[in-house]
Write a structure and sequence with these properties.
The protein is mostly beta strands. Helix content is about 10%, strand content about 45%. The chain has a domain at about 5-220. The longest helix has 22 residues, at about 5-25.
Length: about 325
């Protein structure tokens, strides 16, 4: 690598990623396996199951591209309320038709949760620590309404030590705060039953400056998200699980993700996904026991980045603690 390349490459990487933040306005990590952990998308999902739901996830996006985004997270959420904890949504496997006959709406209860997320893209890192609260209320014998809020702090930082510049006191790098903590608030509402869910949420509800510098006027922008999913029974063993995630992020164009999973009983599932103007994906998951389940996805890049990207990998490990009824897959979310 030439001396000129050593100077230019890190700077161009930083500029590119800042442009992604400022122009495209996609400031939150994206996930292919959002149906496997909808709590990341909408805080109203906190406490939706009658066990403690812990998820560990890692996403490596656009592998093969230097400085490509990498996201790692830990989430945990749990219900509060004895009537709900000791009640059942239905009997048997939620991917069987008989589940519809025995399903009962959840008893009114509270949900709490915690999110720890770290996201790194080139020279920019983002760390989030947030707690959630949700309340679930029965609307009918088979439907529930939930509302939730997440509040915490979000840190953006630039690793200026990786930037080589001709002037070591370049004011664009050193005349500002390259690490800043901001309050972060999200809210959501969710309607769900035995074979459907639909929800709306807003992330980054508070617009904040990302860095304190006269050279950088970037601000966070709200992310408005719509989600929905169905459970369609094909046979006694096979269930189709379509879902959608639509994102409204001004000034970026509206985008959407579409997922389709085919579940075999409550043992495993396979599927595919499409993200508008970005990628196609393949997905698979296994419910190994009433304690642990695993999901994996691989995205094939369809944008202009496919010339340098080898695709994106995402893996999620779920642990179901205090699982009194020994369910192998989620009953009220899918």
């Amino acid at each position: 690598m030439s001396a000129l390349s050593r100077y230019i490459t890190p700077v161009l990487t930083g500029i590119l990623l800042l442009l992604m933040v400022c122009v495209q306005a996609q400031q939150k990590p994206q996930y292919t396996q959002y149906p496997f952990n909808n709590y990341l998308v909408n805080p109203a999902f906190a406490g939706i199951e009658n066990y403690v739901d812990l998820k560990l996830g890692h996403r490596s996006q656009w592998t093969g591209l230097d400085g490509a985004p990498k996201t790692t997270y830990l989430t945990i959420n749990a219900p509060l309320g004895e009537n709900f904890l000791n009640g059942g949504a239905g009997s048997g496997n939620p991917n069987e038709r008989s589940y519809l006959r025995t399903y009962m709406a959840a008893e009114p209860h509270h949900g709490i949760g915690l999110q720890l997320i770290t996201d790194k893209a080139g020279l920019i890192s983002q760390n989030t620590i947030a707690g959630s609260y949700a309340y679930h209320l029965g609307l009918s014998p088979t439907s529930n309404l939930a509302v939730g809020i997440t509040a915490g702090v979000n840190q953006y930082s630039i690793n200026s030590s990786e930037i080589t510049v001709e002037n070591p006191i370049d004011p664009a790098i050193n005349n500002g705060n390259n690490s800043k903590w901001n309050p972060d608030v999200s809210a959501g509402v969710l309607l769900y039953g035995p074979n459907y869910y639909t929800g709306f949420s807003v992330q980054q509800a508070l617009s904040q400056s990302i860095f304190s510098s006269s050279y950088n006027q970037s601000k966070t922008v709200p992310h408005f998200l719509f989600t929905g999913g169905l459970r369609l029974y094909m046979t006694d063993d096979l269930t189709l699980l379509p879902s959608v995630l639509v994102k409204f992020i001004d000034p970026a164009p509206t985008t959407y993700d579409v997922n389709m999973k085919l579940a075999f009983r409550d043992d495993f599932w396979v599927g595919g996904s499409y993200r508008k103007n970005d990628s196609f994906g393949i997905l698979a998951g296994f419910n190994l026991s009433s304690l642990i389940n695993v999901g994996y996805s691989y995205d094939i890049t369809t944008s202009s980045l496919n010339a340098v990207s080898k695709g994106s990998h995402e893996i999620v490990i779920g642990i179901m603690l205090n699982n009194t009824y020994n369910v192998k897959c989620p009953q009220r979310s899918f």
